Fold this protein.
Amino acid sequence: MPLPAAQGSENALWVQGNSNPVRKLDGVAAEQTYVELTHQGLQAHPETGVVIWPETAVAGFSPELVALLGNRELISGLETGTSNRAVRLSNGHITHTYDKNRLVPFGESFPWSDRLRPVYRFFFRAFGFEGDLASRIPGRGYLPLGRYGALICYESVFPSVARSLVVNGAEVLELGSNDAWFGPSFGGLQHFQMGRLRAVETGRWLLRAGNDGVTAIIDPYGRVTARIPQRQPGFLAGQFGWLQDQTLYVRWGDWAVGLAGVLLVLGLRIRPKGTIV
């Protein structure tokens, strides 16, 4: 039986800047790239109600951007220097913030840094990074940006993160990521496929914005309705919908998975003789 259609009524614009993350570490700002692409996208799609930028897209929002957005909202990653943050910008003001809770080991947090500091410094210099290592400050809970449940990059691997956001009121999931660190490997696509499952588990649209991809719209059944090719700058216009119903996984968490496993085992044990599985 084919899956039912999923209709969206909210107009959004996704922006993929394809910025070099190493150059950003050297202080080369990416904001103008995102502003220019957003300007082009809004000219082509003036019906847009919300603009979505990826993880750590910029370090601040200029008056030019605020004027460009008008009364539209912006969901964007924000580089603060101490935390990996997603924000909701409305009418020129940040109304909601969310700091990443699940930090990437050896990328955003450095286990046993007091003892292994010389080792970390060796690899930092080998990769051309200047300065001393410092762990980011993790967030203190999974609170949505209003109706938007923000997942930041690596957090999309964990079903419990998306579930917590929905339990706390998220009616749509937004995922900002920067997978440019994977380079030409399959890592970016693998991360994308893992994140699609969060839409199915929670019964929510997933709005994914990646620095170099994958930028895509994913419906509540995990189907990709539109996407931008990887490793090129661009924008994507599309629709999504607000949803409030709760799936079994949202209601019961991992108990639902455990129950499904028990039922599977029981089904295998009581199947009629001669049945081929």
In short: Helices lie at 21-25, 31-44, 63-69, 113-126, 159-167, 187-202, 248-252, 254-270.
